[in-house]
Amino acid sequence: MALHWQTGVSVESWVEIASGTEIRYEVNPCDRSATLFFGSHCDFVLHLEGDNLRRLAEVAPKAHAELCEAG
Q1: DSSP 8-state assignment for residue 70
Q2: Count: domains in the chain
Q3: DSSP state of 32
């Protein structure tokens, strides 16, 4: 059961983002972090410090490549 549903972003124990959902980001060089905003009304916000952002950036293309290989 969804805890929150609005503009293509559903927050449960995971987040599903519909195709075409707006995604934007802001960086904060002072504390070496980035904030990712999902949905036209910032329905889901993910704040990551630099190392976790790097880790996400490393794993995302690997997951995408595996999906492409699968079909």
Answers
A1: H
A2: 1
A3: T
Cα separation, 54 vs 68, whole angstroms:
22
Each residue's pLDDT, cut to its tens digit, for the chain (71 residues) gives: 455 555 665 555 677 899 999 999 999 999 999 999 999 999 889 989 999 999 999 999 999 999 999 98
Q: Count Cα atoms within 13 angstroms, Cβ side, for 71.
A: 0
Q: What is the pTM of this model?
A: 0.74
Domain of residue 41 covers 4-70
3-state DSSP helix/strand/coil percent for the chain, to nearest 5?
30, 40, 30
**Residue 30 phi/psi, 5° resolution?**
-60, -40
d(CA 64, CA 2): 26
